[in-house]
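Structure (tokenized):
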């Protein structure tokens, strides 16, 4: 059986994350979202989003090898700022079991539509 290979990145909240004003936190969240949008537009990031879990804040699914996914996420402004720590693991599924289409990722909190 053939397998498609992906990398999954878990973004975990850090206990010692830096204190920020609401404005600073908002700016950092927007930079984080913009970074993910760039990665999606490049074709390396297939899907990403929040979990709703207070410890494991988000998950990213990459079309890349683990080392490349780790490199890309270590450049995420929220990781650089110490908001998140990352864990990247390989994931395999039977070939053709999953497919993804390019979509538009939000680049800021202001671009999210809340209904």
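Design, position by position:
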């Amino acid at each position: 059986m053939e397998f498609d290979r992906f990398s999954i990145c878990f973004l975990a909240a850090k206990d010692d994350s830096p204190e920020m004003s609401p404005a600073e936190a908002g700016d950092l969240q927007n930079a984080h979202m913009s970074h993910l949008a760039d990665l999606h537009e490049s074709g390396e990031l297939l899907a990403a989003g929040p979990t709703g879990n207070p410890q494991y804040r988000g998950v990213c699914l990459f079309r890349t090898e683990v080392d490349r996914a780790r490199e890309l996420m270590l450049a995420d402004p929220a990781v650089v700022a110490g908001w998140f720590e990352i864990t990247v693991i390989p994931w395999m599924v039977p070939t053709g079991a999953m497919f993804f289409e390019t979509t538009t990722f939000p680049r800021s909190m202001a671009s999210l539509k809340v209904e």
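Reviewer-requested clarification: The mean pLDDT is 94. The domain at 3-111 is CATH 3.30.70.1060 (Alpha-Beta Plaits).
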